[in-house]
TrEMBL record:
Record site feature (Positions MEP for the nucleophilic attack), residues: R167, K221
Protein name stated in the entry: 2-C-methyl-D-erythritol 4-phosphate cytidylyltransferase
Keywords carried by this UniProt record: Isoprene biosynthesis, Nucleotidyltransferase, Transferase
Function: Catalyzes the formation of 4-diphosphocytidyl-2-C-methyl-D-erythritol from CTP and 2-C-methyl-D-erythritol 4-phosphate (MEP).
Lineage: Bacteria, Pseudomonadati, Bacteroidota, Sphingobacteriia, Sphingobacteriales
Domain of life from the UniProt record: Bacteria
Family: Belongs to the IspD/TarI cytidylyltransferase family. IspD subfamily.
EC number: 2.7.7.60
Residues the UniProt record annotates as site (Transition state stabilizer): R31, K38
């Protein structure tokens, strides 16, 4: 079940827990229909994945960064880092056949007593203040997702019937999805199921309550070709 959490300030507590961020970039981007995987496409001259890492670098929690990439992309990424003089420290991990398997590979580098955020490499427009709010709430509540209220009316389709849902109860889930690492690591020990579309669904399947941190409509996932132009506009602001 999802529970809304009050919006929080972003001041750190005195005791700051070790923080990690797993940036998943193991996908092939079929919907983008581009020869170059979308996480490497330039947005205002810089690859999408670098924008994403820069956003996490700005977090007050200074997370240790783990980037999950298919083995076949590691050399290309090294080439891009050298070309752009990109020196933000991060560890590289092998991608898996699905997002679930990619996250699971990243979790191997995360200690049990840390906080861990899982984030789509292809969401480069996440505000550092939202990343901070997610770490803070995860430290308190254990499992949180960044999400926004639906701006459209929503209908559920079941066979030939459709039914309107109460819009104020509908949240659209984004990343980062942030957890006490011990909770998420144990959840990811459950066998893969195709309904696991995100980390919250894995944690929920393991019996945990997932809370919401208010996100931003700008924090969208680059999925289709037109999304690159939108990201370029928003990142210029
Ligand atoms: N095996 C996979 C599949 C996806 N991802 C990552 O999960 C995020 C969200 O996935 P999505 O947007 O669906 O990316 P793709 O799978 O690359 O895109 P598509 O579904 O269009 O093929 C992306 O950052 C993607 O790189 C991953 O790390 N490993
Ligand atoms: C994790 C996610 O971005 C939350 O909205 C989303 O579920 C990823 O889905 P995709 O089908 O892998 O794009």
């Amino acid at each position: 079940m999802l529970h809304a959490a009050p919006h929080t300030t972003h001041n750190l507590h005195h005791t700051v827990q070790k923080s990690y961020a797993i940036i998943v970039a193991g996908g092939s981007g079929t919907r983008m229909q581009s020869a170059v995987p979308k996480q490497f496409l330039p947005v205002n001259g810089l690859p999408v994945l670098m924008h994403t890492l820069l956003a996490f670098r700005k977090s007050q929690y200074t997370p240790n960064l783990i980037v999950v990439l298919p083995d076949s992309h590691h050399d290309y990424w090294a080439q891009l880092c050298s070309q752009h003089a990109f020196t933000i420290p991060h560890e590289l991990v092998s991608g898996g056949p699905t997002r679930f398997h990619s996250v699971k590979n990243g979790l191997k580098l995360v200690p049990d007593d840390a906080l861990v955020a899982v984030h789509d490499a292809v969401r480069p427009l996440t505000a550092p203040s939202i990343i901070d709010a997610a770490y803070k709430q995860a430290g308190i509540q254990g499992a949180v997702v960044v999400a926004v209220k639906s701006r459209d009316s929503v209908r559920q389709v079941k066979g030939p019937f459709t039914q309107s849902l109460v819009r104020d109860e509908i949240y659209l889930v984004q990343t980062p999805q942030t957890f006490k690492a011990s909770l998420l690591k144990a959840s990811y020990e459950h066998p893969y199921h195709e309904n696991f579309t995100d980390d919250a669904s894995v944690a929920e399947h393991a019996g945990h309550t997932v809370h919401i941190v208010e996100g931003s409509y700008q924090n969208f996932k680059i999925t289709f070709p037109e999304d690159i132009a939108i990201a370029e506009l928003l990142l210029k602001q």
